[in-house]
Model the fold of this input.
Amino acid sequence: MWISIKQARQPGSIGQQAQVRGWVRTRRDSKGGFSFIEVNDGSCLGNLQIIADGSLANYQSEITALSVGSSVVITGEIKASAGQGQSTEMVASEVRITGIASATDYPLQKKQHTFEKLREWAHLRPRTNTFGAVARVRNRLSFATHQFFQNDGFLYVHTPIITASDCEGAGQMFRVTTLPIDKLPMVNGKVDMSQDFFGKASYLTVSGQLEGETYATALGKIYTFGPTFRAENSHTSRHLSEFWMIEPEMAFFEIADNMTLAERYLKYMIHDVLTHCAEDMEFFEKRIQPGVTAALQLVLDTPFTRLSYTEAVEILTKCDEKFEYPVSWGIDLQAEHERYITEKHVQGPVVLYNYPKEIKSFYMRLNDDDRTVAAMDVLVPGVGEIIGGSQREERLDVLTERMLASGLKAEDYWWYLDLRRFGTVPHAGFGLGLERMVQYTTGMTNIRDVIPFPRAPGSCDF
Done:
């Protein structure tokens, strides 16, 4: 019976005749005529120790030549282990080698490599303890996302990757074209986009929100979960060109409902990871960021404090803290400001709301003061913003005016405006970047290390 290493390491497997498959992490030969082989298959952080006796038919010819990275299929009996840090081990009756990794060529030897170096081997880095653990946590957060929204009656909607709409109005979008870049068709000194594949300028999406609203205003509660793209020439440890976004959208929700859902969702994910990825989280606690588990537990156990943007600015301007970026009403708060609010003033998670309209997107609902919009940001200690969202502007006249003020052409968004013409309702939503959440959960400092194949300026190798 073929079982995973995770299953084989459970005490309940003792006494089973089983088969495991995986890759060699270490091999140590004993003077007593047998070898200890540590094997891992990616199902868990820990390895399974294999005892290969010298009496095996291929012991001298193959087993003693096994090197790190080689793939093996091993059959044997699982027994209780007296070894420290392991409850089981396998006594092999057969060791079959399916692929050798040359000891001289295989990059992932015992030597410690920097995360930056491992990005050059993105095809091999999942075999390391760190990146295997990151992958399992990322998987669990993705699973928990679907589970949370499905259990809450949301429908999963696939929004397009190619779009003609700029949701954020920032213009930092990747253009998609079939036009020959060495011989562009021109009309009156401009590129003739009518000859392009879609007959107009089209881009990789920065958000599925606008399209998501069309389904929310028909089906009630939906969520999207897919890749998004931003052509921002940023080389920081917090930016990617391709990343995954979770964006729920809810009809008949107002800003307070949005805050409540965001808090529930964030706590659900944290609880799920702490429950189902305990071994991996212990690794991150010991090797990556001591204190990460306590930080997550704090967010899980603490009711989120709600503060208006105006209240936050007042707190920041009256405190004795010296900030790199001065604070005044109307500025876009920086991470240092958000962290002060969460870590020193509140000492817990915070939801900030009602931001100045000038620093927020056109689709956010204008408040009665005509100065602020019903936007919200969920802030957590150690990071700052983790979720951003808003109540959407459901009034046709106000939305049209806001679009024009943002330099957008109403005719380009005719279908979006139709949602306000035909049965408009209050509605709200938010976005959470999966990579930011994986970073926060694991304590990994660079966002390029929490996505399998990072896309960033000058980096598209795999």
About this structure: The longest helix spans residues 129-151. The chain has a mean pLDDT of 95. The chain has two domains: 5-99, 126-170+206-449.
